[in-house]
Amino acid sequence: MKTICLEANPQAEGLRIDKFIAVECPDMSRSFIQKHIKDGKCFVNGKAVKSSYQIQLSDQIRLEVPDAIMPDILAEDIPLDIIFEDEDLLIVNKPKNMVVHPANGHYSGTLVNAIMYHCKEQLSGINGVMRPGIVHRIDKDTTGSLIICKNDFSHNHIAMQLKEHTIDRRYRAIVHGVLAEDEGTIDAPIGRDEKDRLKMAVNHKNGKQAVTHFKVLKRFDKYTYIECKLETGRTHQIRVHMASIGHPLLGDSLYRAPSVPFKLSGQTLHAMHLGLVHPRTNEYMEFDAPLPDYFTHLLSIL
User: What are phi and psi of 254, to 5 degrees?
Assistant: First the structure.
């Protein structure tokens, strides 16, 4: 267990204790701190307090942070297509048919199993034992670039960029039908489908804001090759938004894409581009994951 001891200063007087600790300990997120306060691990002058406690001058603060629980997940020697790596970040090009993190029915063969082997113990633990290092995700059948955080410092920094929508995320997709406009924006909230809990849907009553910008790259006889830029990152966002305007992704049976004369495994969607600020150097960096072979072959056929 790690014990963090702090003393309140005049500038901190009146601040909530969770905010004060977050400022003094930038390697920990405020939600992470709040969880430990809720678990009775924060003491002021020897007494346990709640997150709403307001700092008083010369308060003696102690936060007990339990040792991270090592996940009961097997590290597996699965090859990774690494785009970039340093002491803070790992950018990988995820292949098709690979689940990002373990869940019911998928406890091995996931990206997490692979990165646990590759990174050993150098992974952020903020998202818990089942998702070490994972700050965002893409679907099993979606290919492309994904950010892995090797420590809590980088995780907090990248998570903030995602929250503030400053990471440039661009996808390539092939959709049914021929889009009339060269570019456009879909601004429609996404939430659980009220008739099918396995699906997401445009949900104006209970959904969260979701914005997708799209641009036509090439039109074919019955299909359109597009680039989608995410402003938000909701589950299945591109798939739901494109289906909502009558242009579901090619191969996306979940969102009722028509059958096709091609042999496909799930939706034709690739997370191609990432633009972000490096958490430690503050340098703006860009990464591109090349289109997978199946995608380029399909484009040549079309």
Answer: -65, -35
91 three-state secondary structure: strand
Instruction: Mark whether 49 and 89 lie in a shared domain.
Output: no
Looking at the annotation, which residues are catalytic? 139
Task: Report pLDDT digits (tens) over 165-202.
Answer: 999 999 999 999 999 999 999 999 999 888 887 789 99
Sign of CA dihedral 136, 98, 288, 260: negative
Alpha-carbon gap, residue 172 to 227, rounded angstroms: 5
- Of the three residues 65, 81, 98, the one that is the final residue of a domain is 65
Q: Where are the beta strands (DSSP E) in 86-142?
A: 89-94
* Max mean pLDDT range (27-36, 255-264, 288-297): 288-297
Last residue within a domain, chosen from 39, 65, 91: 65
Question: The whole model's pTM is what?
Answer: 0.76
Instruction: Write the DSSP assignment of 208-235 as a string of letters.
Output: B--EEEEEEEEE-SSEEEEEEEESS--T
